[in-house]
Amino acid sequence: MREIMIVTRENLINLILAALLLAVPFAANALGQPFYVTLATRIAILALAATGLNLALGLGGLVSFGHAAFFGIGGYVAGILAAHAFSGDPLLFGLSGTKQMWVIWIVAVILSGLVGLAIGAISLRTSGVYFIMITLAFAQMVYYFAISWPAYGGEDGLSLLVRNQFPGVMTMIPLNFFLICYVILLLALGLFALIRASRFGTALQAARQNEVRVATVGIQPYRIRLTGFAISAAITGLAGALFADLNRFVSPSMLSWHMSGELIVLIILGGTGRLFGPLAGAALYVIFEFALGGLTERWQFFLGLILLVVVLFARGGLLGLLAGKAKHG
User: Which CATH architecture has domain 9-323?
Assistant: First the structure.
């Protein structure tokens, strides 16, 4: 009975979070405040990126400092394809660029997933701090490659002259672009819920807890983790493509290890392994950034204090504090 009450309470909190994220941009748009629509869009995109990492970290227990690589790859896919579509210059093998978001998303997901598969294939042969350092090393390799790539701006980055297009939607209108990001976020959260409830998700969580027992029943923990890591990378790459369109700019900062750290912070703040933990964490992070950033340049210091309190006294993050101990995990 108590578990049912906890699940019901968490579902109610999830519903409230989803409703608030949807309501705020409509209210801001009605009041003529497009900045707050953009703020909500930033929350949705960061929540999407953190949802990808939550699959690896929350379910698989894989503390990856390399997810900035996938986030940045998605961003550069959007920037490079849009740049070639504008200039008319062909890409590799005579392929042309495109301004169509749905094409960019597919390319970003496939490329990020393949890079995640390659990085995971090597990194997952280690564990613990060695896994953390190897994923960080791979991310930094991609970061320095982007800096030394003058064809696409190098360390100055690459600008998108206009936001990419989506059939039947005027994407330059902030509310329209928010709705696109919001729907994609809900789809990603639905995918996370399906994976968590599936046999694959159960095996991934079991491998986190005791890989020896998982192996004794005929399941290979390495393959399970590698598949989860690749799916995680693909989702984060999709978020990167949306982030580039939001800012109409992509730079190596998207590939920096600081970005990986931010995504981990979002998950910890919201609740590791929780369905709506990334959304709760992203909302807290962006609100702190906006509210405290206007008061002091050292707003991260106060965020660090809050993170310290969460780690010490609220292990389940904001959702754990409000809904109680998670049923899953």
Answer: Orthogonal Bundle (1.10)
